[in-house]
Amino acid sequence: MDVKDFYYDLPQELIAQDPLSDRSGSRLMVLDKNTGEIEHRIFRDITEYLRPGDCLVINNTKVIPARLYGVKEDTGAKIEVLLLKRKENDVWETLVKPGRKCKPGTKLSFGEGLLTGEVTEIVEEGNRLIRFHYEGIFEEILDRLGQMPLPPYITHQLEDKNRYQTVYAKYDGSAAAPTAGLHFTPELLEQVRQMGVEIAEVTLHVGLGTFRPVKETDVLKHHMHSEFYRIDQSEADKINRAKKEGHRVIAVGTTSTRTLESAADENGYLRETSGWTEIFIYPGYQFKVIDGLITNFHLPESTLVMLVSALAGREHVLNAYAEAVAQRYRFFSFGDAMFLTDLHTK
Known about the structure:
This protein is of the alpha/beta class. It has helices at residues 138-145, 186-194, 233-244, 254-263, 303-312, 314-326, and strands at residues 27-32, 38-42, 55-59, 61-63, 67-72, 78-88, 91-97, 107-110, 115-122, 128-134, 171-174, 198-204, 227-231, 249-252, 273-277, 292-296, 337-341.
């Protein structure tokens, strides 16, 4: 399977730089995963495609303001640190720019010494382990000093940190937002509940590995980075009940999808569990849990385009993306949404 099979041409001006003022006012492309049929709607119309008994699965992870700007204590040289993964209490795996001069033993300072750190080790792909020192509560200091880790294709400053956060975010830990969920408002979620749709929550802390470009020509040689996930028994019960009763399980986002497919047994049922997943979903994969997927439009040749193609077929997906470009949809994190479903099953 060649990475070029998942390429599509995207004009730069279609990359959304700012979130809409109304979360649920974004556009929604509904794609029939079996036939490739397309309908164009507004996101709040999602209620017209949901049915009583469906189980909507959301990822309640919270993005931390993981980008820190500081200096090297010995030279005063500027440094940028992106927190990727907490290894133990005060030790984080990080991405450091410029990295080559940050050898083990290098001391760093942020916020005029409010937070300091020392590089302890160089690990996979040149990432650095940093042990941080501070007085008080780390999360509060990070909230003061850190910036939201927006993807590199977003060049505008984010005026409101909460706009890169879902309205149901609970548990700190992500280096990027589960962006499919950004379209939901509290009012829309309540409307969904009132319809008799069950809402189940899972947690997957999104790492940057999900978004790393596929550098291998042969897709199957690409290695996914591990991400931590957790499912509580009460939420597993909701999902299992929907399956047993013949209702649909609809994942909000590729992160919810990866959590469910990683945790399920061979029959697609779940129990309380937590762990690390490196699951890589591409065409040919047999889904065990999900029947539908709400997601954004993803980068060309990315693992996320491959996941979507596994559910709806590569030709249907690339045709839908070409239609989205022609119709001037907004792409990526702050862009519009797609619902992959079966339009003809009632």
